[in-house]
Amino acid sequence: TWTPDAFVEKTVAELKEKIGSDDKVILGLSGGVDSTVAAVLLHKAIGTHLHCIFVNNGLLRKNEFEDVLEQYKGMGLNVKGVDASARFLDALAGESDPEKKRKIIGRVFIEVFDDEAHLVEDAKWLAQGTIYPDVIESVSATGGPSATIKSHHNVGGLPDFMKLKVVEPLKMLFKDEVRRVGASLDIHPERLGRHPFPGPGLAIRILGDITREKVAILQEVDHIFIQGLRDWGLYDQVWQAGAMLLPVHSVGVMGDERTYEKCVALRAVESTDGMTADWVNLPYEFLQKTSNDIINKVPGVNRVVYDISSKPPATIEWE
Ligand code: XMP
């Protein structure tokens, strides 16, 4: 029978054997479960010969880059945080088309990752947190660097880092098995229980073009919503949640003043694999408090709506 402890023991031994004691390995961390578990396994096998790269694309949740980088360092990982926010946001300026936004983000990610990979001497391997469902589905919906790399890897010439040999220690595992392996490696439950978050991040939750101001507004709204779910003990009952910044203004009133400001939509879904999803019946009291907090604390937003659409036909993300 399969047990996480036996998997760890066997995989660490295999990784040591395969990689040897001289080669260096590069791995892109996303903050998500799969890349984190892959990194900790490899770190157990080869220590500081594993070079992790964590890229800030400027489209992460509020404080996510700093917080997660600290956590990774606390786990003893050899990790370099690369703040490439300006590069991504400049490349996205003026673009409103959802698929073009995804392509730009994928391209810039590869450029940044390739630049960083060149700085690691003796790098011979690229490690990825690919899991079994990614292998069987050609289109990955798991998010993170591995998904970005895969969906772009036959466009034009290969970047240099892609000429590395590939190592994918989680390739035969399902998500729940990855979580169990993570627990057996003592990875913090909060990291293992994290909701999925798309690789293009907030870019596909800001409908229309992306500006720094819109990112900042959405980060505040998202933070109030997600922290609220945690405070109310609802976070683990939800498969994925987030806020969308809509490209409309609506009329409101504040004191004696008429306002004409932005509208956000909150979305929380139950799902097992993201292929189908139902909206979650969050308590009215929670929605009421969250809506008040958002409107009172986030300048520029005067209206909050809750998305009550299921997938299909509505997708989880709005773009
Ligand atoms: P949809 O919106 O298609 O989302 O119902 C299903 C799941 O996939 C995630 N998602 C993405 N993940 N790159 C990613 O890495 C993407 O471009 C992307 N689009 C959607 C979404 O967050 C949900 O978990």
From TrEMBL:
Keywords: ATP-binding, Glutamine amidotransferase, GMP biosynthesis, Ligase, Nucleotide-binding, Purine biosynthesis
Binding sites annotated in the UniProt record for ATP: S30, G31, G32, V33, D34, S35, T36
GO cellular component terms, semicolon-separated: cytosol
Catalytic reactions on record: XMP + L-glutamine + ATP + H2O = GMP + L-glutamate + AMP + diphosphate + 2 H(+)
MF (Gene Ontology): ATP binding; GMP synthase activity
The keyword Ligase is annotated on this UniProt entry: yes
Pathway(s) served: Purine metabolism; GMP biosynthesis; GMP from XMP (L-Gln route): step 1/1
EC identifiers of the protein: 6.3.5.2
The organism's place on the tree of life at top rank: Bacteria
Residue ranges occupied by any GMPS ATP-PPase domain in the UniProt entry: 2-194
Class of this enzyme: ligase
Subunit-level organization: Homodimer.
Stated role: Catalyzes the synthesis of GMP from XMP.
Protein name: GMP synthase [glutamine-hydrolyzing]
Organism expressing this protein natively: Pelagihabitans pacificus
Region of the whole protein represented: 193 to 511 of 511
